[in-house]
Write a structure and sequence with these properties.
The chain is an alpha+beta fold. The chain is about 20% helix and about 45% strand. Strands 1, 2, 3, 4, 5, 6, 7, 8, 9, 10, 11, 12, 13 and 14 form a 14-stranded antiparallel beta sheet that branches. Helix 1 runs antiparallel to helix 2 and helix 1 crosses helix 3. The protein starts with a helix and ends with a helix.
Length: about 210
């Protein structure tokens, strides 16, 4: 299993031109633009995986929530959130969509994060994504199937924010279509994540 994880990590650490760090990103954060590599690496790090889709969310609300226990999440935005056509989006075009994870046991988050118009149709654009530790990434989203994922080797992810850049204009809303949460199934399993991080760090230095 360790050999498999190292193989995956070596293939995903190259950042494409469409996915760059907007600030000094932590060395302990691994980012992905491939769903298969993300899923395999989450398993290699001994994390349990929970996939959330949003077809059951409809209309305007102050917040939405889902999952349970270690994978529980809440989606909020300053002016409220809106569910339509299998996505969750901000209610106001200029707002940031925030997913919060209260368990302190979430170590990876990935999914289809993009923009939509008022009717829920996909809109391309450049999106800023911010993790709870302050790391920020700029992501070019040119298709509704564009995948974005993050895995932390040493801190729990308590929030993920999707923000619209000033270059994106008009009635364009930050949205999420699916979300895959990687979480520690039991507190004692955190040591396994730390061990996997040490091994992968040694691999990157060699």
């Amino acid at each position: 299993m360790q050999h498999s994880s190292l193989t995956v990590l070596s293939s995903v650490l190259t950042v494409s031109a469409s996915f760059v760090a907007a600030s000094n990103a932590s060395a302990s954060v691994i980012f992905f633009d491939d769903a298969a590599a993300y899923t395999e690496t989450v398993a290699a790090y001994n994390l349990s995986s929970y996939t959330q889709t949003f077809e059951s969310y409809s209309g305007a609300a102050a917040s939405f929530s889902g999952g349970s226990g270690n994978n529980a999440w809440t989606a909020t935005s300053p002016n409220g959130v809106f569910g339509q056509t299998n996505i969750i989006r901000t209610l106001a075009a200029s707002d940031t969509l925030t997913f919060s994870f209260a368990s302190n046991n979430v170590y990876s988050v990935g999914g289809l994060f993009h923009y939509v118009n008022e009717t829920g149709g996909f809109q391309s654009g450049v999106m800023k994504i911010r993790l709870s530790n302050g790391d920020e990434f700029i992501r070019t989203v040119d298709a509704s199937t564009t995948f974005t994922g993050f895995l932390s080797e040493d801190f729990s992810i308590t929030s993920l924010q999707l923000s619209r850049l000033s270059t994106v204009t008009g009635s364009t809303f930050a949205a999420a279509e699916t979300m895959i949460i990687g979480y520690v199934p039991a507190p004692g399993a955190a040591a396994l994540i730390a061990l996997a991080g040490i091994v992968s760090s040694r691999r990157r230095r060699n």
